[in-house]
Amino acid sequence: MEFKPRLAARRAALPALVAVACLLAAPALAAASSQGSAEDHRSVLIAFIPGSTSTVSGLPFTGQPANGSPFERLTAQPGMAIGLSSAVQGRYNGVQALLDISQGTRVSLSTYDPQKPNPVVLVPDRRGGYFQGWMEINERADSAPANIQPGLLAQSIPGGSAYASVTGEGQLDPIAAADRAGRIERVSVGSASSLAARAQALLARKALVVVSLPSGAAGDVALGRMVRARSRNELLIVMRSPPTKRFAQLLPIGIAGLGDGGTLTSSTTHLDGVVAGIDLLPTVLDWLKIDVPEAVSGQPITVLPIDDAASVLSLKGRLQVVGERRFPALWSLLGAWVVLLLCAMLAADRRGMRWAMRTGALAVFWLPSMLLLTAALAPSMTVEVLIIVVGSFLLGGLTDRFVGWPRGPALPAAVAIAAYLVDLAFGSPLVIRSLLGPNPLFGSRFYGIGNELEATLPAIALIGLGAFWYGREQSSRAAAIFAGCGLVLAAAIGSARLGADVGGVMTVAAGFAVASLLMLAGRPAPKTIVLAVLAPLGALALLAAVDLLSGGDSHFTRTVLQADGSGAWWEIFTRRFELAGRGLIRGLMPLATLVALLAIALGLLRRDRLLAPVDGDSGWRAGLAGAAAVGFFGALFNDSGPMLLLFATFIAICGVVYLRGDPRLADGAPR
């Protein structure tokens, strides 16, 4: 039988055929595997763009001339969502801005020891490099009252990060690429023309690459090449390199990969068009599908599907002038009051003096409302100061004319509280642009009210409520009305979706608790006094419940309610008091604080004489005492400490000045 040898020969040849087929298919399988691996490889490229450059025409990626502003150059990139990044918290420092990006959390410079970071130098070695002086960076971070870990971003990425730059251009940008030991795994330095290609080559090996773009036309060309070379699995973040200038900064930032254009935001800021530098770390790790460490306080950046670069740029311009206009406007108001007082005395002696006292005090009570008006108009500095001064005194004079003394403060207080509650309900677009707003430029608060308004609004509300209640008796109903008004104001100031101010809740609760006690008929029971003392803590607990139920995702929720044990709570507590203590010893603040405390003590000891024009009226007594309590307890509950004491005490003094402007004493006749 011949078929048996043939069958045996075929069986013997089968393994050889299989081996040949495998050899032939190996290149195709390898190519397919490589392609699949490349598609699954996610990477992040962070490119730091320098400051203004000269105009360059005919760029290959846009076909349009380049603009000098980094923000305008970012808006020219196709498919890039744009916004502004808050650099640091408090006083600005360029090195600290990069350290905050690398560590994903931040505190004020004043809480570090030393306050400014020491100089660091990138020293290259075989393939990578390390920062000389990084040990001092870590020691300084340990001095801060928080879990600060410089280099946490690169440390969290397997294999570390890489850095690419141009020969001859010294940069601090690689700080963002350093790990916890201050090391960068791979460093590439070469020509500007090869920068984009070198960056892409590094992305094939490392999941995170940081690039320092060159200045001038070469930087625009390199950025255009990076935009064109970006794959769908690459997240491209382009950010203005933190400058060495000392004033506060909002750095232009653009991201390609989170959406097709749009405007950037995050849960850190809750402000359209504004994110924080510490948000880069969780954004990068989320893109790479790496768990974000618990030490990180930043939140992932998201994209709103709206292209509104003009509004973002307008916001930046407004925030940059708020700080420099704040005190000139306030001093102009006080100076105008002095001039008005002198002129009125020359024209009508005591009658004119008391009219000027009432009108000036009412102008101060109208000031918060006028600040919202100028925030909406955004005029030049001269026009803004004129509107504030003339408008406040005009409204003060009209109020004195048509609202009988001593109920005058009730009208500006009601208007101010209503206006601010409405603005807070819409996301506080005017409050953050006002001269007494939180000013996101300094990176502490991005919506809601700031520390100055935190003391001013409750104090004005209490005096206004006391003036409205003038002539009525003490009663449980009166105390309940005062407490209810305080509850509404505390809810607006503390709610995560409105004010998001934890210290403000306790401050309002303390002030209105004191006023409510004084509105009770007779001596309050010990139980009532205990409840009043616990009011700030009760308000805080209520805020926590509302925040959790509403999903507010506020800073309070993330740092307090979700804090990891008593150690984290203690850090928050000590940080607040450390900041308040540092503010107390700065400049003339010790003297100003002493004057404010003495003024409160004098008011308590001479309360009968001060309230003589209204015969010791219970409403006015409760309002003034509550305003003083706002300042005193606000200084204890907030990291700005003495600043709240000064503002609330000033409002209380204005209330007393208004009372002493009793028109019945215009001729000097005793009552």
From TrEMBL:
<feature type="transmembrane region" description="Helical">
    <location>
        <begin position="502"/>
        <end position="521"/>
    </location>
</feature>
<keyword id="KW-0472">Membrane</keyword>
<feature type="transmembrane region" description="Helical">
    <location>
        <begin position="528"/>
        <end position="546"/>
    </location>
</feature>
<feature type="transmembrane region" description="Helical">
    <location>
        <begin position="618"/>
        <end position="637"/>
    </location>
</feature>
<feature type="transmembrane region" description="Helical">
    <location>
        <begin position="478"/>
        <end position="496"/>
    </location>
</feature>
<feature type="transmembrane region" description="Helical">
    <location>
        <begin position="410"/>
        <end position="435"/>
    </location>
</feature>
<protein>
    <submittedName>
        <fullName>Unannotated protein</fullName>
    </submittedName>
</protein>
<keyword id="KW-1133">Transmembrane helix</keyword>
<feature type="transmembrane region" description="Helical">
    <location>
        <begin position="360"/>
        <end position="379"/>
    </location>
</feature>
<feature type="transmembrane region" description="Helical">
    <location>
        <begin position="385"/>
        <end position="403"/>
    </location>
</feature>
<feature type="transmembrane region" description="Helical">
    <location>
        <begin position="584"/>
        <end position="606"/>
    </location>
</feature>
<feature type="transmembrane region" description="Helical">
    <location>
        <begin position="455"/>
        <end position="471"/>
    </location>
</feature>
<feature type="transmembrane region" description="Helical">
    <location>
        <begin position="643"/>
        <end position="661"/>
    </location>
</feature>
<feature type="transmembrane region" description="Helical">
    <location>
        <begin position="329"/>
        <end position="348"/>
    </location>
</feature>
<keyword id="KW-0812">Transmembrane</keyword>
